[in-house]
Amino acid sequence: MSTDSAPPQASDRAILAVVAAYAAAFVLFGFLVEPAGDVVRGLVAILTTRDALLTDYFGVGGIGGGCVSAGLLTLAASAVYWRAGAKMTGAAVACLFLVLGFGLFGKNLLNVWPIIAGVALYARFRGEPFRAHLNTAFFGAALAPIFSEILFSTSLAPIVSIPLALATGLIAGFILPPTAAHLFRTHMGFSLYNMGFTAGVVGTVLVAMYKAFGYVPNPVFIWTKGANGLLTGFLVVVFGSMAAVGWAFDRGAFARLPVILKAPGRSPTDFIALAGFGATLANMGAAGAVGVIYVLATGADLNGPTIGAILTIVGFAAFGKHPRNILPIMLGVALGALLRSASPADPSLALAALFGTSLAPIAGRFGFGWGIVAGLVHSSAALTVGPLHAGLNLYNNGFAAGIVAAVLVPVIVALRAGFGYRDDLDAEAK
Questions:
Q1: CA 63, CA 56: separation in Å to the nearest integer?
Q2: How far apart are CA 46 and CA 50, in angstroms?
Q3: Residues ≥6 apart with Cβ < 8 Å to 229
Q4: Domain boundaries, the chain
Q5: Cα separation of 211 and 209, whole Å?
Q6: Are 97 and 342 in contact (CB under 8 A)?
Q7: Could you tell me which residue, 425 or 344, shows the higher pLDDT?
Q8: Can you say how many angstroms the Cα of residue 49 is from the centroid of all Cα atoms in its chain?
Q9: Torsion, Cα of 381, 180, 102, 231 (10° steps)
Q10: Tell me: the pLDDT tens digits for 365-403?
Q11: For residues 32 and 21, what is the distance between their CA atoms, to the nearest angstrom?
Q12: Which of 52, 212, 389, 292 is nearest to 284 (CA)?
C-alpha cells in the first residue's frame, strides 16, 4: 500500500476506547494474579502510603493491587477526557499511558486530584475550557507525592496536614500551566518530558520552602524483584496486541511505519496526525518491546517502576519516540554505567536508560552518535538532581533530561556550525 495518501484517522472515541481497554487489561491481570481480597487490601495500602521516589506499588500492595490501582486510575482519567470532549492527539495518548505507568509507582486514585483541580482552577481563572489544559493537568500529577507526603506526615496533626496538603496541591497545579509554557523554550522541544522539567523546577521551589520551615521529607526506597517471568509474559501479550490492533485499524499500518521511523521526534510531533492511529499503535508496541528487551538484557528487574518507565516509552511512541531514536539513548546510559564500573541493572541506572529516552529527539535530529552522548550525560545527571526535589517530583528523569537538553543542544549546534552544518532550529519549530 502506498504511504503517499493521507492515513486513515480514527475517531477520538475509538482512540480513547483503545486506551481504556489497555487500562482494563491491567485491572483484569491484577485480579488474575492475586485473590480479590488481597487486591482490595493492596489498594488500601497504596492509597495510604507515602509516594516519594522510589515507591514500588508492587511492594506496597502486591502485583495485583498495583496493576488494579494503575488500571482504575487510568480508567478514571479516560472518563475525564471523555466527559470533557478532549481531542485524542498523540500527546493525549502519551499522557494517559503515563498515568497508567506512574499508577504503578507514585500516582493513585487519591493523590492526583488536588493537582488536577489546581489546573482546572487556572483554566477557569483564564476563562479557558478545561479540556485545553487536560494534558497539563494529568502530566502535572508528577507532583502528586507532595499531597501524600503532607497528608500522611507523622509530624503534623490531621487538622494541619489535611488543609495544608490540599492547599499545596492546588497551588502547585495552578502554577504548572504558565510555568510549563515558559520552560518549554529552555530545551526547545528536545526533551519530550517538558512537564518533568517543569515539575522538577516547581518541586524544587516547594521543597525548599518547606525545608526552610523545618519540614524535611524522609527518603523512600521500595523496589521489588523476582517476577520477571510473569510480567514478561503479560507485557508480550500487551505489546504484541498493539501491532494487531493497529493493523485492524489500518491495513497499511506497517507500510506507514517508516514515516514514523524517519521522524526526528522533536516536540511537538504527533504521530497519529503524521501516520495514523494504526501505524502509531504498531510503533507503540515495537517501542515497548525495545524497553522490555533492554531490561531483560541488562539483568534489571521488571516491577512497578520499570514497567512504568516502559509504558512511558509506549505512550510517547505516539508523540516523538520510536525504536530508532530511543536505542542510542539507552546505549549511552549503559555506556555511562560501564565507564563508572556500575551495573546497567542498578535501579537508578535502569530507570535512567528507560526514562532518559525523553532525549530521543536529540538522536533523531542530530544522529545516533549524539544520541549516545546524550544518554551518557543523562546517566550522570539523573543520579544527582533527585535531592533538589526530595523525590517529590515523580519525573526525576524528565527534570534531568530537560537540563541535559538545555545545555547539550546549543553545544551540538555550535560544534556542527564549526564544521559547516546549519541548524536553524527556530525555523524548524515553525
A1: 10
A2: 8
A3: none
A4: 12-212, 235-429
A5: 5
A6: no
A7: 344
A8: 21
A9: -60
A10: 999 999 999 999 999 999 998 888 888 889 999 999 999
A11: 16
A12: 292
